[in-house]
Amino acid sequence: GTTRPVLLLTRRYPDAVMTRAGRDYRILTNEDDHPYGAEEMARRAEGADALLVCAVDPVPAALIRALPDSVRMIATFSVGTDHIALAAAKERGIVVANTPGVLTDATADIAFLLLLGAARRAAEGERMIREGRWDGWAPTQLIGTHVTGKRLAILGMGRIGQAMARRACGFDMEIHYHNRRRLPAAEEAGAIYHADADDMLPAADFLSIHSPATPETHHWLNAERIARLPDGAVVVNTARGTLVDDEALIAALRSGKLAAAGLDVFENEPKLHPGYAGLPNTFLLPHMGSATDRTRDAMGFTALDNLDAFFAGKEPPNRVA
Ligand code: DGY
């Protein structure tokens, strides 16, 4: 047979993914699973035909230009592609592909977990009991925000936004959404479309963010938009931290304008804006939307499917550049 292509794996991926990668490629591995910076990534890419990166590996234009000529494809183990300078990749003729679809349900599950957990003060209750501060049931203890029958506004009605809407249907929620294009199927199921996201905000008892990070969505949830939300609204973000202006969100959680926030993603991960940790009404998770056994395997297999197609001379099914 022909020699297998050389694949740089920037991190330790799930066992089944490593096994398949090792069978079909000559793999360069990251033994202690530390994040490579740009410099180390360029150095390690020496002799590689392709890279398997993930959402926390920044691949800016400068790194793309510094990659050795041997690198012809970057497969990312993520649906998000905001960490990769796609235009620069295109310019160098490097093909890029992502993993849409396979993490939809896992991420929507975490979004709904955050919605419920933030609304119902699950983290506060958990801390109370764990720290030995629970002195028994009381009629006014840990009263949260009612969920069933409320209005849920979804920013970004892609796969994950739609899966969030399906979950909310089980809670008899009224769905409002903003998306670049209208979705007749969602509207047939009762969702209410807002051409302008700002016009949706007054209807958002709950606001869940599912848009990609782009220059246009940077700090989208700012002080002005928070002011348009109903008093006591709950905000959920499982997309990217850069969509939220942390200072504005923290001020609104502190003043009581917002009841709570459930956040799985942050602007400078893994650094947390210190304002969040000091607030009781934040329910915080460490970017684990896609972290299920089946989902992480499927992300790896999808990334490998993209690589396999490319090296077989075919179009990768999830090509983005
Ligand atoms: C993604 O896929 O973009 C997530 O952020 C990591 O699973």
Summarize the structure in words:
This protein folds into 2 domains: 6-102 and 293-311, Rossmann fold (3-Layer(aba) Sandwich), CATH 3.40.50; 104-284, NAD(P)-binding Rossmann-like Domain (Rossmann fold, 3-Layer(aba) Sandwich), CATH 3.40.50. Helices cover 36% and strands 16% of the residues. It is built from 13 helices and 12 strands. The protein has helices at 15-24, 38-44, 61-66, 86-92, 104-119, 122-130, 159-169, 184-188, 197-200, 223-228, 246-255, 274-277, 293-311, and strands at residues 6-9, 26-28, 50-54, 73-77, 95-97, 151-155, 174-178, 192-193, 206-209, 233-237, 258-263, 282-284. Strands 8-7-6-9-10-11-12 form a 7-stranded parallel β-sheet. α5 (104-119) crosses α7. The mean pLDDT is 98. (2R)-2,3-dihydroxypropanoic acid binds next to loops.
Give the terminus-to-terminus CA distance.
30 Å
Going by helix content, strand content and strand pairing, the class is alpha/beta
Which molecules other than protein and nucleic acid are bound?
(2R)-2,3-dihydroxypropanoic acid
Q: pLDDT below 50 for ≥5 consecutive residues: which ranges?
A: none
Radius of gyration: 21 Å
- CATH class category name of the largest domain: Alpha Beta
CATH H-level superfamily title of the largest domain: NAD(P)-binding Rossmann-like Domain
Name of the CATH architecture of the largest domain: 3-Layer(aba) Sandwich
Major sheet description: 7 strands, parallel
Written as H for each helix and E for each strand, in order along the chain, the element string is EHEHEHEHEHHEHEHEHEHEHEHEH
Query: Could you say what the CATH topology of the largest domain is called?
Result: Rossmann fold
Please work out how many helical segments DSSP would assign: 13
The helical percent reads 25-40%
Q: Can you list the strand order of the major beta sheet? A: 8-7-6-9-10-11-12
Query: How much strand content do the residues show?
Result: 15-25%
Overall geometric form:
globular
Total beta strands: 12
Oligomer: single chain
Q: Quick check: average pLDDT?
A: 98
Overall structural domain count:
2
